[in-house]
Amino acid sequence: MAYYDLKKKPPLTTKEGEEDVLYPEIVYIGTITAKELLEYTSKCSGFKVGAMDGMLMSIFDGMVHWLNQGFRVELGEFGYFSGKIKANRLVKKKTDIRSGSIHFGDVNFRPSAKLKKALDGELTRTPDHTFRHSSNHSMDELEQWLMAYLDKNSFIKRTTYTEQTGRLKWKATQDLKFFMEKGLIVSKGRGNQKYYVRAEKEQ
Fold first, then answer.
1. What are 73-84's pLDDT values in tens digits?
2. Whole-model pTM?
3. Residue 153 and residue 54: Cα distance in Å, rounded?
């Protein structure tokens, strides 16, 4: 499940006399790292993480090679990559600038029709996350919510737990430690990369 919020249309894009309107915008709840993606894919497919990581590096090197040659590169069902160039300065005549002043500056990505069509997950309006105090849910209620969440998702991060339960950072950390000591979940990773999975998945 993904979340969205409704925001006012920017004034610069609103025509004179036009009423204020709202548009939907996705609310990101975190970033899945390459390592997390590979570990998840490994569990679903059986491919080794190391093998997939090596393949990604090889694909990256190949893509860079062809982009530098001026080609667009198609990457399976993901879409198309293309190089973007820029000049150190703007000129009025073609003869006023040399090739040494023009270089690659960015990469464009155009998703495939299949990728766009595949994004058909459930969306729900995000709750108000401006918590000043931790929510007063009981530990039993929090445990039920956490287990239900992990039934649908392979892992959870502390930030997601905070956003979904209304528990402040320090309280959320205590909650997750309590559930670990109870044997319900185990932690993976360190620092900002730490996440939690069901304990039985370690068997």
1. 999 999 999 999
2. 0.56
3. 26
